[in-house]
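Researcher: We're teaching a course module on how sequence relates to structure. For the next exercise, students receive a sequence and then see the predicted structure as tokens, so they can try to spot secondary structure elements on their own. Here is the exercise chain.
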Amino acid sequence: MSTQLTLSLPDEVLQRARKYAEYTKRDIKEIITTTLASTLPSLDTIEQLRTIAKLPDSEVLALTKSRMDKKADRCLSKLLDRQQAGKLNDPEQAELAALMRLYEMGLLRQSQAFAEAVSRGLLPPLEP
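Model: And here is the predicted structure for the students to work with:
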């Protein structure tokens, strides 16, 4: 199912989307939809974030210290190095995108846990 939505975009964003659609020979609607779908957290992730407030103090604190799996972190670093060198192939680009998504979601969970820990008085707020 899909819902039609009228949306106002900044001119620069629309221009970038159009140029990218031209470059990839894809419809601009597909570009925008794919970009939104890949950028927004999944419904499952949103639900996980909401449940952080219900966790015991010890679990909230543990989440504030959570890190990406070491093997995935090493792989991410290698792929980022290859990207910087302009040597990524298509499968590696897909793997990099997936690992970046995993990394971003981990940071999102960690920051939500940190906010919860601060609100409970378990940790002091960050200094500005």
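Model: If you want an answer key for the exercise: The chain has two domains: 10-40, 42-119. Residues 53 and 127 are 23 Å apart (CA to CA).
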